[in-house]
Design brief:
Layout: H1 12-37, H2 59-62, H3 72-115, H4 156-163, E1 177-180, E2 185-191, E3 202-204, E4 215-220, E5 241-245, E6 250-261, E7 275-283, E8 290-298
Parallel strand pairs: 2-3, 4-7
Antiparallel strand pairs: 1-2, 1-5, 3-4, 5-6, 6-8, 7-8
């Protein structure tokens, strides 16, 4: 077909083909220029997804039945590298977490091992050397005073250390009053059985059971000084009752019996499996070289 000289003589398809040809030619010139200047490197354009219209292809590309593929190889390489880096980061994180848990477990084991102490063989606790309320007779040349002569000499330092035990603060469950109708006694109960405590009433040995509790509640008072509160303990009979008061309630005990013992027979103050009360005082009256011990048990309400 003879080439037409004027644009207005060209058909629409011929104009389109002319524009495409000119655009392709201009694009090829730019690419060639970039190759010459080193701005781009030649590479094979491959893709499975981007389809280039036939009119934008040159003669060789137009007659190739396969579509042009753009950048698939480089993209696959980039994706592979990124996947490898991500997998490596996950593995490193897993290793760090595993090591952290292992170190934490070891640290806890070391802390627990620090708490462990060798098991020591328990030794009996000496709660008393002699029975409480001991004193010299008020008619002796020196008058009434704590009787250190009845304490074995080698145990006197221990007795002094026991005397330094602090007096506990009164609590609602502590005894605060005792009434013994058979002896016409109504007196306060004080924590502690030291010389100063027994000046103010009946003393409870520190650490013994509280009223109503399982164990042995030990009470002491003088028989011939400071009110002679326990002077008539030997007049009590089995079946006689007395009452111990706390800030919460009253507890009644019944007498089982009484006996005379040496001042060093501290076993009478041992704990008992059931609620028990023990009343102790010097004996006999105005001699005070022995002890009278009265035993009573709780009356169940």
């Amino acid at each position: 077909m003879k080439r037409k000289e004027y644009l207005h003589q060209l058909s629409q398809s011929e104009l389109r083909q002319l524009l495409v040809e000119r655009g392709r030619h201009a694009r090829q010139q730019r690419i060639n220029n970039f190759h010459r200047t080193g701005k781009i490197l030649p590479q094979r354009l491959e893709t499975e997804h981007i389809q280039v219209p036939l009119e934008y292809l040159n003669f060789q590309e137009r007659n190739n039945p396969e579509r042009v593929r753009v950048g698939k190889g480089n993209r696959n390489l980039f994706n592979g590298v990124m996947f490898f880096l991500e997998l490596s980061a996950v593995l490193v994180l897993f290793v760090i977490l595993f090591n952290g848990m292992f170190l934490l477990r070891e640290l806890n084991r070391e802390v627990v091992s620090g708490f462990e102490q060798p098991t020591l063989t328990p030794t009996p606790l000496v709660v008393a050397v002699v029975l409480p309320s001991g004193h010299t007779s008020p008619i002796s040349p020196g008058g009434a005073r704590p009787n250190e002569a009845e304490i074995p000499e080698h145990l006197r330092p221990l007795m002094q250390s026991l005397a330094a035990i602090p007096i506990p603060t009164a609590a609602p469950e502590h005894a605060h009053r005792i009434q013994i109708p058979a002896m016409r006694i109504d007196a306060p109960v004080i924590q502690g059985v030291g010389w100063e405590q027994l000046k103010r009433g009946v003393g409870q040995v520190i650490g013994t059971a509280n009223p109503g509790q399982n164990g042995n509640m030990v009470l002491a008072a003088h028989n011939d000084i400071f009110g002679e509160l326990f002077r008539d303990l030997d007049q009590l009979q089995p079946g006689d009752e007395f009452t111990i008061y706390t800030n919460q309630r009253a507890y009644t005990y019944t007498i089982i019996g009484w006996k005379i013992v040496e001042p060093t027979q501290v076993e009478v103050m041992k704990p008992t499996p059931s609620p028990t009360a023990t009343l102790i005082s010097c004996y006999p009256y105005l001699v005070d070289n022995m002890r009278i011990v009265v035993t009573a048990r709780l009356v169940e309400s």
